[in-house]
Amino acid sequence: MFGFIVRRMMSSLVVILLATMAVFALFFLGPSNPAQPICDANGRCTPERLANIERGLGLDQPVHEAYVEFMDGVFTGREISFGAEVYDCDAPCLGISYSNRLQVTDELEKRLPATIMIAVGGSITYVILGVVIGVLAAARRGTFFDRALVSGSLLVSSVPYYLMCLLAWIFLTLQSSIFPATGYFPVTENPWETFKGLLLPCLVLGVASAPAYARFTRGQMVETLGDDYIRTASAKGLSGRVVVFKHALRAAIVPIVTIFGLDFGVLLGGTIFTEEIFGIDGIGRWGLDAVLAPVDLPVLTATIMVGAIFIVFSNLIVDLLYGVLDPRVRVG
Amino acid sequence: MTEQLTQPRHAAQSRESEPYLVVDHLTVKFPTEDGLVHAVTDLSYSVELGKTLGIVGESGSGKSVSSMAILGLHDRRSARIDGSIRVGGTEVVGLSENELRDMRGNSVAMIFQDALAALHPYFRIGSQLAEAYRVHHPQASKKEAKARAVEMLDLVGIPEPQRRVDNYPHQFSGGMRQRVMIAMGLVNDPSLLIADEPTTALDVTVQAQILDLLQDLQREFNSAIIMITHDLGVIAEMADDVLVMYAGRAVEYGPVTEILTHPEMPYTWGLLSSVPEVSSDPNARMIPIPGNPPSLLHPPQGCAFFARCGHSRKVPGDLCATTLPELLPGTRGPQQLKRCHLADPDAIYEAEVLPEIAPELVEENRG
């Protein structure tokens, strides 16, 4: 078991490294020059000044040298110069944002909690909603209730997510103020404000993703309910509720947990639409801003790295959980 | 067995004269998209405590469907069940789900064919057994239920039950798993045990052990057993009575000795002809029954076996094709019932069938 975890950790690190390399390569080989807007911002841009800024940012280096310098900064910190100004960047240094000259690591620390809270709140909502609806639909398969749930969930999931966010925001906070204004207020200052600001985003994210989970759960449950051990459970004299929620759901939950883990990792990497529309300063919105010109390489690298780390590790956790959930695949 | 774990027998027989299980004119139909499936039609049989009824027939002949009806395990919304099933004097057909639950696993228990599929893969054996016990003994503590689980595993011959009780089903061998299944069936001392092909998934030596175990337990607890199988060897070993089913109906019913030595229905002959015998000449013929059973969506008007029957020419006119034979006493006495138009099937069996499938038996009879 321990060997398995170590092997998986190693391969996870490799994947993360490859992801950062890919970002660097794409950026360096791409057509846009990030030094140009910096140069333009400070008065007339002469070719000398542009070359100077490029040298300061390390853009004149070959891509592999720039990458080594970046990784060096992650572990030991480094100095970064923007033209005349020189910034100290402590380890773990992910660079200095081109747009606001702030340390990326500090900004990351500030923005990460918002994204994590949306991801946690949203996924709790959709997993509970989805699994409950799916189980009930499967248990009443073929009835009106089942059909209503299935077609209702199709209807909800056919609405584009950004549209749902916008409609919810306009109607539920702007017009009717049923929900408090959204946004991220640091949890260390006033947790109640944090909760109020993230309530609607989490609910919308949850409701929008619940149908997919409901359909998946229903499918798994229908399959499980046809298994022999379900008939055994009924033949023991157990109530329908115990048969469905204990025996059938216990078996159906394994693939649901797998999908959930992968989705959760993706959410942690940035809930882009949710953050952008509800005005929450999280990882997703940050990454989105960094892509919009002028491209902010350090921020982009950091957000992609964070996304990769979350996805890779949620994969790892899912694999380990699988062994816990299914006694047949336990190693050793 | 400790005193507190011993439970009194359930539901004393209310009608002294009646066998523990009486199935009377049972009919089970399932509506499907293609039409109504006549899974079981007009089936009657009974089993007394301490006795074993063997039900034989091909897949789809209605063996399992009729037994699952006893526990009310068919989907209430789709299955149409008519007739009467009395368990210990109580009418079961039409009982509510809650009333049926009281009976399931308690006075009537079922053990299934493939124990690996029939046991929950994610729960420990002990907790599955304890659960079966606690449903019907809500006053029992978890500790008592676990003790009962260990006791049952010991009873069915699982070594080191204290340790094995915490294992999962996949950690058992096929035979041991079937023992677990039997232990779970017997955990509440049922008066009627329905065994649905309990040895089909096992290899032959283990089959014999499981059958022995069932017989021992039956002697100890005096329960009635319904043994569903397509293996006539199992029937010969276990059963007191035999019910041969074909296309959802009983085609022959009687004491095992009569049915196996003097079968009076060509389908039963076919079954006997298809049994390979260890001691027989390797060149001896095994005669398969030609063709396939009829569709239960549109059961034939006459005898369901007519299309596959090699003896229908001996019946005058087109009786076999047009008229369903009734289940009537055979030529050898009232205890054996057969559904066949043949006037003297026993004579045909002795003269035509037996010499083909067991020539040595014919020699003995002459000598």
Describe this entry's structure for a reader.
The complex is a heterodimer of chains A (332) and B (367). In chain A, a hairpin with a 2-residue loop joins strand 1 (78-82) and strand 2 (85-89). In chain A, helix 1 (2-29) crosses helix 4 (63-76), helix 5 (104-139) runs antiparallel to helix 10 and helix 7 crosses helix 8. Chain A folds into two domains: 35-97, no CATH class; 104-329, Orthogonal Bundle (MetI-like fold), CATH 1.10.3720. The longest helix of chain A has 36 residues, at 104-139. In chain A, strands 1-2 form a two-stranded antiparallel ribbon. The radius of gyration of chain A is 24 Å and the shape is elongated. By secondary structure, chain A is mainly alpha-helical. Chain A has 13 helices and two strands. With 367 residues, chain B is α/β, with parallel strands linked by helices. Chain B has two domains: 3-122 and 152-158 and 171-239, P-loop containing nucleotide triphosphate hydrolases (Rossmann fold, 3-Layer(aba) Sandwich), CATH 3.40.50; 257-366, no CATH class. Helix content of chain B is 34%, strand content 21%. Chain B contains 14 helices and twelve strands. Chain B has helices spanning 63-70, 97-103, 115-118, 125-136, 142-155, 161-164, 174-186, 204-221, 232-238, 256-261, 266-273, 319-322, 345-357, 359-366, and strands at 21-32, 35-47, 52-56, 80-87, 90-91, 108-111, 192-196, 224-229, 241-246, 249-255, 328-330, 333-338. In chain B, the strands form two sheets. Chain B has an eight-stranded mixed beta sheet, sandwiched between helices. In chain B, helix 4 packs across helix 5 (142-155) and helix 11 (266-273) runs parallel beside helix 13. The longest helix of chain B has 18 residues, at 204-221. Chain B is globular, with a radius of gyration of 22 Å. In chain B, 44% of the residues are buried. Mean pLDDT of chain B is 87; it is low at 1-15. At the A-B interface, helix 9 and helix 10 of A face helix 2 and helix 4 of B.
